[in-house]
Structure formats: C-alpha cells, structure tokens
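Input/output pair, single chain:
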Amino acid sequence: MRGFIVALLAILLVGSDSGRDTRQLLHNAESASNPASLLWLAASNGSGVAEDRLVAWATMQGSAFWLNKLVALDNADAAWALYQLVGDDAKSDRLMSLAAIGNVPEAQLAFAMTTDDPVKRETWLKRAAGQGYLPGQAALADWYLLHAQPEEARPWLRVTANDYPQSAFQYGRLLWADGKRKAAGKWIAQAADSGHEMAGKVRLILSTYSPYSAASVPAKARTDESCSQKIGLFATSLSTIVKADEIVTEFRKDKRLQSLAICLDAPVWLTDDSLNCGGDWKGQGRLGCDVRPLANAVEKRGLTHAVIIAEQGKANVNNGVMFLDLIDSYAVFVHELAHFAGFVDEYALGKNAAKRYCGSEDAPNLIFDGKITYSPLSTLDNWRALQPGVGIWPAQSCARSDIRAYKPSGHITFLEHHDSGDIPPIYMALWRQQLSRPEAQRPVFMNLFQSFQKAGQTRKAGKWLDKYNAFLGAGKGDPEETVPEEDDEEPLPF
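Output:
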C-alpha cells in the first residue's frame, strides 16, 4: 500500500509540474541542462517565446526530433533550420516552401532560386528583399539587371553597394551611364578595392582611356608601313572599351598570328553619341552602324580596316569593317579577322552567301567540283605548292547549294567553329599570301565610299573611292560594280 501511495504522489507531482503556467516553464527551462521538453510544453500552450527558444536550441544541437515537432506547429523558422539540417531529401521542398511562406527571408531567397518560373522568382526575391534581407536585395538587383531593368535595380544597388562589391560595381556603372562620372569612379574603385575582378579592369581602363567625339579622335603617327592591314578598334561605351582592350591585349599575346602583317592599334573610346548603331541594322538581322562619322579617324590615323564594338548584335564583316558585340569572344574576333583577308566560312553558308562564294575563284581556303577535276585549279596548285601532299577534305560551306566544296585540312578549323582555335599551318601560309595581295582585301575605304554615296554625299564618296583605287593600285578593280559582302556570320553548326 505504501508503494502505491508513493507512486500516486509521483504521478500527481508530475502532473502538477506539467500543468504549471507558461512563465514558470520558461523560468525552469533557463536553468535546465536540457530545456527542450519544458520549452515544448510552453510552446504547446501557445508561447511564441518558447517556440523561438526551442528553435534556437534545437538548431544549435542539430536536433531533427524537436525541429520536426515544431514544424508540426507550422513554425517557419524550424522548417528552415530542418531544411538546412536534412539537406536534399523527399521532405526538403516542403520544408523550404513552409519556411518561405512563413516569411523566413533566407528561405524565400532559396525558394526563388529553385524555380524556373520568372514571375515566381521575382515575387519571392521581392518578398525576401522587402524584409531587409541584404542577400535577397542584392539578388533582386541582379535579377533586374539581367532583364535590362536598370531603373528597377538602382534603389536595391544603392542599398547593397556598401556590403557587396558586385552591387557597388553595378551601381557605379549606372552612375557612369547617367553622366555622374566622379560618383561612378568612387563606387567602381570601392568594388575594385574589395577584390571585384571586373571592377579592377574598369578602374584601369578609366585611368588609361578617355572618350572622344568622332570628330576629335587624335591623329596617329604611323611607322608600320610594312603592315598590310592597319586596324583600328572603336568602342562605343564603357563596357565596350573594356572588351576592346581585352581583344587588343589577347591579340598582342597570340603567338599564332605574330607572323602576319597586321597591326592592331590601341582602341579608341568614342562618346556615346558618336555612332548610330543597331543590332538589326537596316533589317538585315545583324549588327551594323553608320560608319560615316569614322571617316575623320580613319584618315587621321592611317587605317585600312576598322572594328566597331557595340552593345549587342550579330558579328559580321562588311567591306573592311568588323562589327562585334559584348558577348563575342577573342576567338570570334580571330575568325572575323580572317574575313578581312578574304577567307570564307567553312560551316554551311546561307543561301545568298552560298550563291556568291560557291564556285568562286576568290576563296583562298576552298575549291569545288569542276567538270573534270577540282576548280579552280590555280587554288589547288597553290595549296600543293605551300604544302606538298596536302589532303583534300569536304567542307560544309556549300551545303545549302548544289555545289560541293573542299578545304585543305581534315580538322575542324577556326573558320568552321570559332572556339576550336585550330589554325592549320597551311591556313597561316594562305593568310600571309592574302595579306600581300591588296586585291584580295576590301578595306574600309569601300565601306565609306558606299555609305557616303547612299547618303547622296557624292563629293565625299569620290574621295573614298579614290583611296580605294589607290589601295588596289592604279587601274585595278572596278569598285562601283563590286557586290558588297554578304553576312559573314551565321549560327554555328552544333
């Protein structure tokens, strides 16, 4: 009987303790070595303070048991902590969703980045950012920049610029576009000092180059008459002068091309209003510009060819002018550079380009089926002279015509795939040959002649026609009857 009474008293005591009020449970939990059960009882009584303390304790202890019990109460912080604890399993998506809906900003950012739905992603990024969560604010700014909404990104960049080098850099770029050059330089320098690689490049660019109007581009004293092509690069913005500088730097380090009689000048940075360019120039589906404003620079700097780097558009070469955009790599530049010397693409040409080039005698890297043998025989003989025993391999150039084309290499060359980087020795020999033949090239003078002629500026057109004839040599060629180059750049045949 005595034992029964003692047990009954113990049950009553436990029941009495479990029924204590929330304040007492919280107080007792403070001194307990394992407060979880006390905090759980208080949380079960509706105490938000107890829930928060139990979440913190369970998170620190890595206790999936107590976090799971809190998730059963729809505690968002517990859901997020458990999500981080269990990792990628069957429950993780539900946990992340619960935490995000419960306004845990870390979960909202994570949830945003897991969805491919752009509307949902922006919605959750905005919710995380709206709670003052810096990583969410920085991510939202990047989202707006990615979708060409700089004005939406601006306020978030300003908020996060002191904490994130990427935000500081992008904020500086926006200020530069606004003409606030001093403030822009401050933020770009801050990002560079924090180790942001691109900011460091831009800071160096700002200390090296200054923008010029097209009319005020300085002259250049030339001492490189041995160069068959004197090429000037023209950038149209802060972003494109960075790209232009990178191209020149890579060209000067490219040992493959050092034997070519090509001189590439340091780039010229033009003010934003110097050139009128477009990604769908005259409805042709490619990048282009009105090149007439470059006439002064071409003449004063003694150029034979020009490269214009604009923000966006399809790369191409047209009568001595190469057009590139920000995403074009150095490999694309080298590919297009070969077009300056008359090389033809070795991937399937478009119908118009195929009509022009397939069967032509002008392509140094292609021959075609003739009535009896290959044609032109002079090109084949030249290949054999340059590389005895040269192989003849099918080329894709004329796949869209009824003519079969061949090339002097079995490799996928840089004329078929930009990024292959393969320039076989025979192509280098052909390139050197082409550079020694003015008639094999079409300098920028032809482009300027045509541009002024189409604009009704016949006097200026005549001046550039004379320069073109002088480049070819007296009495050679009839430039007024030559056909402008077709689109040299088409999607690669992946």
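Confidence is low (pLDDT under 50) at residues 1-19, 474-494. The first helix runs from residue 2 to 18.
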